[in-house]
Amino acid sequence: MPPSPPAHQFEYLPLVLRERGPARFPSGGGDENPATVANKAGRSGHAGGLRSHTANVSAAWEVRQATRLQDGLPDICLLYTSPSPRD
User: Are 63 and 69 in contact (CB under 8 A)?
Assistant: First the structure.
């Protein structure tokens, strides 16, 4: 039985990533999600939607940063990490 999710899900954070359904492994098994089937059938439309969503998220981030600066709040600093070790 999987562990239950934590009581607090950080509802106050405007997170972009959304996940639904069980994990899918390349070896398959079970029925494919209908949304996945539709996305594969209309790859260019799906790609355009992803591009549009990404642009909207980026624009909202820039507006939020500008608003923070106008309100005298500090910049939000994002740290990027690499999954591979440094040489």
Answer: no
Check: pTM over 0.70? Answer yes or no. Answer: no
Q: From 57, 1, 17, 76, select the one nearest 9 (Cα to Cα).
A: 17
| pLDDT > 70? residue 53 | yes
Only one residue has tokens 């309100």, namely 71
69: number of CA atoms within 13 Å, CB side? 8
* Amino acid letter, residue 5: P
Distance between CA 14 and CA 29 in Å, rounded?
Answer: 33
